[in-house]
Write a structure and sequence with these properties.
single chain; mainly beta; Hypothetical Protein Aq_1857, Chain: A; six-stranded mixed β-sheet; three-stranded mixed β-sheet; 1 helix; 2 iron, 2 sulfur cluster binding; HesB-like_dom_sf; iron ion binding
């Protein structure tokens, strides 16, 4: 059986900051075809979950993964990175055999 993706405390904390003072949105993490390496991550905010989404919860926040993307994200770690060149949600994906320099696309 494939392990579900994990979300770090840092990613949940950043999502809580984004949602502060607003109606809380969930962070959707999906995989789609495309990008320079074959697959690309689609990370966006959404108001709610679809009925068959995997919902990962922490710190009062939710991260959503659709059933089509789930096999591509098995065992992945969803984190938040803040560096001098910018801040973003990042995915450490053990299923990716290679990824592009920007980290938004990968191949398997």
């Amino acid at each position: 059986m494939n392990l579900p993706p994990k979300v770090t405390e840092r990613a949940f904390a950043r999502l809580a900051q984004i949602n502060a003072g607003k109606d809380p949105a969930a962070l959707r993490v999906a995989v789609a075809g495309g990008g320079c390496s074959g697959f690309q991550y689609d990370i966006r905010l959404e108001p709610g979950a679809e009925p068959d989404d995997l919902v990962l919860e922490g710190a009062g926040q939710r991260v959503l993964v659709d059933p089509v993307s789930l096999p591509y994200l098995a065992g992945a770690v969803i984190d938040f990175s803040e560096e001098l060149i910018g801040a973003r949600f990042v995915i450490e994906n053990p299923n990716a055999s290679s990824s592009c320099g920007c980290g938004t696309s990968f191949s398997m």
